[in-house]
Design a protein that fits this description.
The structure holds two protein chains of two kinds. Chain A has no helices and eleven strands. Chain A is an all-beta fold. In chain A, the strands form two sheets. In chain A, strands 2, 4, 5, 6, 9, 10 and 11 form a seven-stranded mixed sheet that branches. Chain A has a four-stranded antiparallel sheet with strand order 1-3-8-7, with no helix packed on it. Chain A is globular and about 35 Å long. Chain A starts with a strand and ends with a strand. By secondary structure, chain B is mostly beta strands. Chain B contains no helices and eleven strands. Chain B has a five-stranded mixed sheet with strand order 2-11-10-5-6, with no helix packed on it. A four-stranded antiparallel sheet of chain B has the order 3-9-8-7, with no helix packed on it. The chains are: A mainly beta, B mainly beta. At the A-B interface, strand 5, strand 9 and strand 10 of A face strand 5, strand 6 and strand 10 of B.
């Protein structure tokens, strides 16, 4: 099983809503990531978890709140987002200390 | 800081044409080098990689060679297909922190029948 599964694939939310993005992998990878990708741009790193502990937070606003309940799951909780937060949110996993990332297909978020 | 420079797109080719997408990286340390591909409406996939000088990564007819002397990792394919239409990202990984994977700006390839 070499898949990273993300749900939902599409999400539309208002600025006052609370929603969550979910990610799951069963490859035994101990590093998991959230990236944000705007149209025609490369992915931008948001958060990294290593061994279920947050190891990197790239100065992301607090309206994005990551959570790693166990080694297979990664969530991104969303609250009070802005329209400029509309983007494709990509989850990835990797063995530790490599650049070989396995990406999910992404959750396309629209904030109205 | 560490950086990567990738050929600007878009690139439009006819089927069976030869493809080169240029990529150069900063020579800090000794990075591993990756090419990722993103097909329309999908996430990124690892296309190929090379971890040391003179290594050649290859997959699906694509190749790239780790050139330490020119700090380059150019992507090539001898005969492109319509199904190769995608965005290609060069990405050096400078080791250590998981955040040290640097994506290039991406090159959009369109292949016409």
């Amino acid at each position: 099983d070499t898949e990273v599964t993300q749900t939902p694939k599409h999400l539309v939310m208002g600025m006052t809503n609370k929603k969550s993005l979910k990610c799951e992998q069963h490859m035994g990878h101990r590093a998991m990531y959230w990236y944000k990708q705007k149209a025609k741009k490369p992915p931008e790193l948001m958060f990294v978890y290593s061994y279920e502990k947050l190891s990197i937070n790239e100065s992301v606003p607090s309206r994005f709140s990551p959570e790693c309940p166990n080694s297979s799951l990664l969530n991104l909780h969303l609250h009070a987002l802005q329209p400029e937060d509309s983007a494709l949110y990509l989850c990835a996993s990797s063995p530790l200390e490599t650049g070989e990332l396995f990406f999910g297909e992404g959750s396309r978020l629209t904030v109205l | 800081g560490d950086s990567v420079t990738q050929m600007e797109g878009p690139v439009t080719l006819s089927e069976e044409a030869f493809l080169t997408i240029n990529c150069t990286y900063t020579a800090t340390g000794y990075p591993s080098l990756f090419w990722y591909v993103q097909y329309p409406g999908e996430g990124l996939q690892l296309l190929l990689k090379a971890t040391k000088a003179d290594d050649k990564g290859s997959n699906k007819g694509f190749e790239a060679t780790y050139r330490k002397e020119t700090t380059s990792f150019h992507l090539e394919k001898g005969s492109v297909q319509v199904s190769d239409s995608a965005v290609y990202f060069c990405a050096p990984h400078y080791g250590g922190s998981q955040g040290n994977l640097i994506f290039g700006k991406g090159t959009k390839l369109s292949v016409k029948p």
